[in-house]
Amino acid sequence: MxxxxxxxxxxxxxxxxxxxxxxxxxxxxxxAGPVVAGAVILPLNSRLSLxxxxxxxxxxxxxxxxxxxxxxxxxxxxGSAEAEEIIELGLRPATFLAMRRxxxxxxxxxxxxxxxxxxxxxxxxxxxxxxxxxxxxSIAAASILAKVYRDRLMEDFRNDFPEYGFETHKGYGTKRHxxxxxxxxxxxxxxxNYKIFRLV
Length: 200
Known about the structure:
Blueprint: H1 7-14, E1 20-26, E2 35-41, H2 59-72, E3 75-81, H3 83-89, H4 91-104, E4 111-115, E5 125-129, H5 132-135, H6 137-156, H7 166-169, H8 175-184, H9 196-199
Parallel strand pairs: 1-4, 4-5
Antiparallel strand pairs: 1-2, 2-3
Helix pairs in contact: 2-6, 3-4
């Protein structure tokens, strides 16, 4: 397994950049809830060897790292775009919106490292790296922040919409979720512009 490193951050520091932000998103493939982006500046001397792409970690590992990343980072933030914005703007523009909202909360930044996607309308230099969440430690840390934040948010939705089981599938298209949509119809946090909602 390839472990993410600070290689790209160090290369940018050598070029004169001072505040390098890692950015990643979660929730892109869900049927409900927001798309959430994390943004983080990590000190390059931080010993966070467990950091990986959030999809490669257990929920317990992510929860522990969430607190450690917040404690050790120079700055961190999350930004989101809600289901209504996804419906209005489309998924990819809403994802970029969530990323910009996260980055804008970082007090000082002069370069962004982002997983896969080039973010339009961003006034900061950026580098998009395919597979960045598995290569770049700050992007991997951002993915953990976004994942834990979004999972907790989706778990809280069980109080408002208990029939859908959001606490288990987090809004993704599992069999249980699709059956609940078919039985109860969509709720206010569903992305009802998706084709699936015209088929149930």
